[in-house]
């Protein structure tokens, strides 16, 4: 298994290299001069002089060619330096550290909501195939997939914050501030997991060893939760691992809707301000999360089902 992990790490590094090249190139090909944009904002909207623009570009290495800037940036990244913000001159790692926990908290809470809703719903839907519970769960899953999360967020705010007044509309710091964003973020993922778990459960329930377990007189609860659910979770683990990375991306919109601090708000502000070091650092961090999550998902396979051999059978 260690050989497989090493191979995955090497391939992950290649992915990160490709992401860094693409991100670095796109940021510099976007319209607008970051020096002019940032200096104008610092001067309260007044146009900066050409001399000030040149000083800014020289100080931040923007006069170098794009390949030279990229090599310098990669060299710094390999030393743990993601650069500094053009605006505040604060290290990008410091900005990410200051905004990381609110986003992680939201992503974990959204994942928890999704699992708490999806696992029992998917199991009940599969066990009662063709019944009212099955149809009801499928309708709810379809609604969850169909609704844009920003629209759902505003709807939840209208009902629970404006009309009922039981939860806050925006902010950060208490459990009440987390409820609506977590439900909004987790609803779409819950719908995906519910449909996938239902299909996986139905497939496993038709296996011969399940019929054998039932013929031996085992209680239905043991057959469903001990024998069926464990084997049906394998494809679910994949989607949960991948969706956790997407939850971080989805947090960008949710943080804007509920006016929460976090990486999403930091990224949006950096994009509009042409704050390239912050944008590049955040995209790289998200890419690292995807690579690490995929690796952890593959390793988890082995513990859920020891019959699975990582790396095509060789360890």
Topology:
Elements: H1 2-29, H2 34-42, H3 50-59, H4 66-78, H5 92-127, H6 132-146, H7 149-163, H8 175-205, H9 208-215, H10 220-257, H11 263-272, H12 276-304
Helix pairs in contact: 1-12, 5-6, 5-8, 5-10, 5-12, 6-8, 7-8, 7-10, 8-10, 10-11, 10-12, 11-12
Structural commentary:
The protein is mainly alpha-helical. The protein has 12 helices and no strands. It has a domain of 157 residues: MetI-like fold. Helix 5 packs antiparallel against helix 6, helix 10 packs parallel to helix 11 and helix 11 runs antiparallel to helix 12. The longest helix is centred in the C-terminal third of the chain and has 38 residues. It is flat, with a radius of gyration of 24 Å. It starts with a helix and ends in an 11-residue tail after the last helix. The mean pLDDT is 83.
Give a quick summary of the entry.
The protein has 315 residues and is mainly α.
Shape descriptor: flat
Detail the poorly predicted runs: none
β content, as a range?
A: under 5%
* Helix and strand element order: HHHHHHHHHHHH
Main location: membrane
Membrane topology: Multi-pass membrane protein
Subcellular location: Cell membrane
Family: Belongs to the binding-protein-dependent transport system permease family. OppBC subfamily.
Describe this protein with a few key phrases.
mainly alpha, 315 residues, 77% helix, flat, MetI-like fold
